[in-house]
Amino acid sequence: MKALCCLRILLALLSTGPLAQAQADKVVFHTLDRRRLRSSEIDRLVLQRMEAARVPGLALALLEDNQVCYLRTYGRRNLETGAPLEPGTVMYGASFSKAVFAYLVLQLVQEQVLELDKPLYQYLPKPIPAYEQYQDLGTDNRWQQLTARMALTHTTGLPNWRWIEPDKKLRFKFAPGAQYWYSGEGLQLLQLVVETVTGKSLTELSAERVFQPLRMARTSYVWQPAFEDNYALGYDDEGQVVGIRKRTKPGGAGSLSTTPADYAAFLTAVMQGRGLTPAAKQSMTRAQVRIPYKAQFGPLATVAAPDSNRTIQLGYGLGWGTFVSPTYGPAYFKEGHDDGWENHSVVFADRGKGLLLMSNSANADLLFKELLEKLLGDTDTPWQWEGYEPYVAGKK
Q1: What residues contact 191, with CB distance under 8 A and at least 6 apart?
Q2: Alpha-carbon distance 29 to 77, whole Å?
Q3: What is the pLDDT of residue 27?
Q4: Is 391 domain-assigned?
Q5: Residue 221's closest CA among 230, 232, 210?
Q6: Radius of gyration, alpha carbons of the chain
Q7: If we measure between CA atoms, which residue out of 149, 156, 183 comes closest to residue 254?
Q8: Given CA atoms 136, 142, 143, 146 in this order, what sign does their dihedral have?
């Protein structure tokens, strides 16, 4: 019955006119805290908050019974032309890239192509520092300790990106395996290993293993000519255009271009366990390490956290953040941020419910805390750790 309900919602949202709007408004989404939401309530809240925080465009998907039950886009993909943001509009996924990459890696692990705890250098034909991009590690033999599990749990000890460092050099900030420290560099090293052992580029692998099977026709780690007909531009917190980078080199840590419809399809595949064994999905979406720190980034990223983080058992799985709601059970999440782009997704595994937010605005994260609470009933997402300070009139 609910599956038919979800189908009717999607058909209504893809239609236009008063009749379609009336049909859609009769259908409700059941939140975690058992509230019944009408589409008119959802749309009114989102549009009001977008206007107040000056967010050009935002996409929303609500998931129930492990499938998409509500998919809607609001606002503009291009303020100059006035073109609307649509479910099929290509947007920058940013670190959503990491969740897709982790899904692909877990497929290789379950096929015994890779082992999570085997040192990465053992998969390569030459020592890691012998590769030009890793020569900075030549004087520190700790590169021999790095594993796929460390890369996926952000415990390699490597920085997020070397270009953020004062001297632009790559070096260990912590001992491998010692603690959580978000690292795109660790994922990029794992990508080198994946491409080496398979003999294929990440572009090829992701298309074969993820995007084609899941019918994500407008998603890729590199820019595709087909994207030119409908893509969004990013905007900074002052509403100035940032644009979108049309990447030609795939990066498992951050080059993904995707659409709200495609990424919602990916989330449902993960929720349903498609492409992964139950054991592989469990290891990916349940905590491998605990995170006892106040913030994900910045100077508070190594400062002990308040009791709230311990209450929800904040941690990291393989490519996904994790927590446990005292009321609703285990959850996994992934964000994606960059200049002009803010994305968030969360799934409550035992409840079969989730939420996806994608926006082409640096201001969108000001809305995330409230939207999670009012549209999903999620009051446990670690919004302070993620930096989702709620919108206050007159302030950024």
Answers
A1: 101, 202, 250, 251, 252, 253
A2: 26
A3: 61
A4: no
A5: 210
A6: 21
A7: 183
A8: negative
- Nearest partner of 168 among 211, 212, 138, 136, judged by Cα: 136
CA distances from 107 to 101, 114, 270, 307 (A): 10, 9, 12, 36
What total number of domains does the chain contain? 1
- Distances, alpha carbon 45 to alpha carbons 126, 260, 367, 383, in Å: 55, 19, 10, 19
207 φ/ψ sector (left φ>0, alpha ψ -120 to 50, else beta): alpha
- Tens of pLDDT along 232-267? 999 999 999 999 999 999 999 999 999 999 999 999
Specify the DSSP class assigned to residue 319.
S
Question: For residue 79, what is the DSSP state?
Answer: T
In a domain, 328, yes or no: yes
Is there a domain that residue 393 lies in? no
- What pLDDT digit, counting tens, does each position of 143-191 carry? 999 999 999 999 999 999 999 999 999 999 999 999 999 999 999 999 9
- CATH code for position 253: 3.40.710.10
- Positions of the chain with pLDDT under 70: 1-27, 393-396
Distance CA 40, CA 28 (A): 10
Tell how far CA 262 is from the center of its chain.
Answer: 13
Provide the pLDDT for residue 22.
53
Under the phi-then-psi rule, with left for phi > 0, alpha for psi from -120 to 50, and beta for the rest, what region is 227? alpha
18-25 helix and 2-13 helix, angle to the nearest 10 degrees: 150
Residue in 99, 46, 33, 104 with CA at minimum distance from that of residue 353: 33
* Contact in structure between 175 and 154 (CB atoms under 8 Å): no
State residue 15's pLDDT score.
Answer: 38
d(CA 12, CA 25): 9
The amino acid at residue 202 is L
Q: Look-up: residue for tokens 């994260």?
A: 365
pTM passes above 0.90: yes
φ and ψ at residue 26, rounded to 5 degrees:
-80, -15
Flag whether 49 is in a domain: yes
C-alpha pair distances (Å), 50 with each of 14, 46, 312, 361, 391:
22, 6, 29, 10, 10
Question: Which residues share a beta bridge with 27?
Answer: none
β-sheet bridge partners, residue 30: 36
- Domain limits at 21? 2-386
